[in-house]
TrEMBL record:
Presence of keyword Repressor: no
InterPro entries listed in its UniProt record: EutN_CcmL (IPR004992), EutN_CcmL_sf (IPR036677)
UniProt subcellular location: Carboxysome
Name the UniProt record assigns to this protein: Ethanolamine utilization protein EutN/carboxysome structural protein Ccml
Gene symbol of the encoding locus: ccmL
Pfam families: EutN_CcmL
Keywords linked to the UniProt accession: Bacterial microcompartment, Carboxysome
Amino acid sequence: MIVGKIVGSVVATRKNDKLVGSKFMIVEPIDNMPTKYRMVAVDNVGAGIGEIVLIATGSAARIGCNMEDAPVDAAIVGIIDDGIGLE
């Protein structure tokens, strides 16, 4: 899993049928995470810009957001309230 900060959102009026109704957020991984690139993640926990979130990637992302058949590679699966050493 990856810890990141939400820095923006994405609006897609046309998308895969399995993604209709999904909210997309731009997430920037925090400094000590294995990836340094921003990513777009499906948000089904109601996170907002500026919040620190927990991201699942790959097949865990699809399972974590109950979208096993959807083209999802990253999903926000939690909002972090507190964490030692995150920033």
